[in-house]
């Protein structure tokens, strides 16, 4: 990439098709990284095979395969499997939850849609092409799961002990619930365990008037007897989120319910199933609160899966990425500017942010500043920080895609932090879309994580600390060895601390 005084005005020099092809080729040629974060692709393992760590240790033994049917057609909400909730497409959220579960060894998405397949693949799933005869509106989900098992080479004799059927239209799945359901089936307690939430609601069924004039009748209660809630045993509402199935029994029954059936109680907040636009709006409204509750658990489980130690804290997600990109105004600054009598602008930045970026550079993490405005102050700041910078950018998504492709970095391995509508194209591409707390509502809606610190007051430092903590945890689990695909070659524009020390030592000796 051409660099001129730390920053250059962005000129898009690749066609959309060339950009798509370059990124797709990169995604298929770069090796998968075991122990990656929520979006990093993980190498396929056979059921029951643990994650190999530094020193030959194995993190856990997985016994289940997760299968996620996600067809492209939808009558109620077109394209719903790609609809974003909390910064991630629904199919990617399902993959993330399955990959975070410790007892699931393989995650497969079966789909007839190329875009869904690409999103799922980038999220870390294997892909099974779903044939047209199993992709229509009348095709059962069971038929897709059975086909995916067959395409994965499994039968009643050789299949994994447990198959977990997961529906992408349930956006809030706790990996701990998946593990609990799998364990109950694995240990023989039940043949099927499905997600359900307790309810004490009085249900009614409306019917046509008959001779006695009645038009509605109680379904689960006697209308003349109204016991208090605390005096009633709960009933359970099937959420549709997941079904843990004994594989050999499922292959014989060819239906999700058979044998001894158990209920895995899930939190009522997670009992959301998206069928139409109203459901999607409700899920998006709930996401900031529900995701914050789940984030700590998911982070800790992802870290443990890679053999790393991590404290479950919703403020500290496991942001394991290979690069960081940011907006400038409102992220590095407080989104205000001072103008003197000559019309010269100045902005306020945080020294803490500078220190955070220096640590990222020392760790070999590339950093990019993207700015819609072409302004000398952006150039000067990028030059001082020693990072890449593109300004005068109309389409930040295209610019981010080109920069990542040029560096051989998958977009799902990029964290991008923004604050306004102009950042949406980049937020939609990044594996970790992140927002500052006072970001525009449209930007907040797309964020997987919202920082606590504001722009110009340490927001970049906060993100840098999260990224470096995740890298330290995974590197420690791997015995301190370089991460697969991580370069140790000298980048003259971004030398690490170790490389700068080696350069200085060489200068003294010569």
Key traits:
Spore Coat Polysaccharide Biosynthesis Protein SpsA, Chain A, seven-stranded parallel β-sheet, globular, 2 domains, 14 helices, alpha/beta, disordered N terminus, Rossmann fold, single chain, 510 residues, seven-stranded mixed β-sheet
Task: Compose a concise summary of this entry.
By secondary structure, this protein is an alpha/beta fold. The protein has helices spanning 16-29, 90-100, 114-123, 141-151, 175-186, 247-253, 277-305, 351-362, 376-385, 396-407, 424-429, 441-446, 459-477, 497-509; strands spanning 8-9, 64-69, 84-85, 88-89, 104-111, 126-129, 162-166, 192-199, 204-206, 216-218, 235-246, 261-265, 323-327, 338-339, 345-346, 367-371, 388-391, 414-418, 432-435, 449-450.
Tell me what you see in this structure.
- This protein is of the alpha/beta class and 510 residues long.
- It folds into 2 domains: 8-20 and 319-479, HAD superfamily/HAD-like (Rossmann fold), CATH 3.40.50.1000; 38-201 and 232-305, Alpha-Beta Complex (Spore Coat Polysaccharide Biosynthesis Protein SpsA, Chain A).
- The protein contains 14 helices and 20 strands.
- The strands form 5 sheets. Strands 1-17-16-13-18-19-20 form a 7-stranded parallel sheet, with helices on both faces. A 7-stranded mixed sheet has the order 6-5-2-7-11-8-12, with helices on both faces.
- β18, α11 and β19 form a beta-alpha-beta unit.
- The longest helix has 29 residues, at 277-305.
């Amino acid at each position: 990439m051409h660099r001129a005084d730390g920053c250059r005005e962005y000129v898009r020099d690749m066609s959309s098709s060339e950009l798509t092809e370059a990124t797709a080729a990169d995604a298929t040629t770069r090796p998968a990284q075991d122990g990656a974060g929520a979006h990093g692709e993980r190498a396929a393992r056979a059921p029951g095979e643990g994650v190999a760590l530094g020193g030959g240790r194995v993190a856990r033994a997985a016994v289940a395969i997760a299968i996620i049917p996600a067809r492209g057609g939808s009558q109620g909400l077109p394209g719903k499997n790609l609809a974003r909730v909390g910064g991630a497409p629904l199919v990617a959220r399902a993959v993330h939850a399955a990959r975070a579960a410790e007892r699931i060894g393989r995650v497969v998405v079966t789909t007839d849609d190329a875009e869904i397949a690409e999103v799922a693949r980038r999220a870390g799933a294997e892909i099974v092409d779903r044939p047209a005869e199993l992709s229509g509106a009348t095709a059962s989900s069971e038929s897709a799961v059975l086909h995916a098992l067959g395409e994965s080479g499994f039968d009643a004799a050789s299949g994994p002990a447990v198959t977990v059927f997961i529906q992408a239209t349930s956006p809030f799945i706790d990996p701990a619930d998946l593990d609990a359901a799998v364990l109950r089936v694995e240990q023989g307690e039940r043949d099927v365990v499905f997600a359900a939430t307790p309810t004490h609601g009085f249900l009614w069924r409306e019917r046509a008037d008959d001779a006695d004039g009645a038009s509605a009748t109680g379904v689960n209660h006697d209308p003349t007897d109204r016991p208090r809630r605390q005096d009633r045993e709960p009933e359970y509402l099937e959420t549709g989120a997941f079904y843990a199935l004994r594989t050999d029994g499922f292959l014989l029954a060819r239906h999700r319910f058979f044998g001894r059936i158990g209920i895995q109680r899930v939190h009522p907040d997670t009992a959301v199933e998206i069928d139409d636009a109203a459901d999607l709006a409700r899920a998006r409204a709930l996401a900031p609160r529900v995701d914050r509750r789940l984030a700590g658990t998911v982070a800790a489980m992802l870290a443990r899966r890679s053999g790393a130690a991590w404290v479950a804290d919703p403020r500290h997600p496991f942001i394991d990425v290979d690069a960081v990109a940011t907006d400038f105004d409102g992220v590095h600054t407080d989104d205000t500017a001072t103008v003197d009598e000559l019309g010269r602008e100045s902005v306020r930045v945080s020294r803490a942010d500078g220190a955070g970026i220096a640590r990222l550079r020392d760790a070999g993490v590339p950093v990019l500043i993207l700015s819609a405005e072409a302004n000398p102050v952006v150039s000067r700041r990028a030059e001082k920080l020693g990072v890449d910078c593109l300004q005068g950018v109309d389409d930040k998504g295209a610019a981010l895609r080109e920069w990542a492709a040029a560096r051989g970095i998958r977009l799902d391995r990029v964290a991008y932090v923004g604050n306004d509508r102009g950042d949406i194209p980049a937020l939609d591409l990044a594996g970790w879309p992140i927002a500052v707390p006072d970001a525009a509502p449209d930007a907040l809606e797309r964020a997987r994580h919202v920082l606590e610190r504001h722009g110009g007051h340490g927001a970049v430092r906060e993100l840098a600390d999260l990224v470096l903590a995740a890298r330290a945890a995974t590197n420690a689990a791997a015995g301190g060895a370089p991460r697969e695909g991580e370069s140790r070659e000298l980048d003259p524009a971004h030398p690490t601390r170790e490389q700068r020390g080696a350069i200085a030592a060489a200068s003294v000796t010569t």
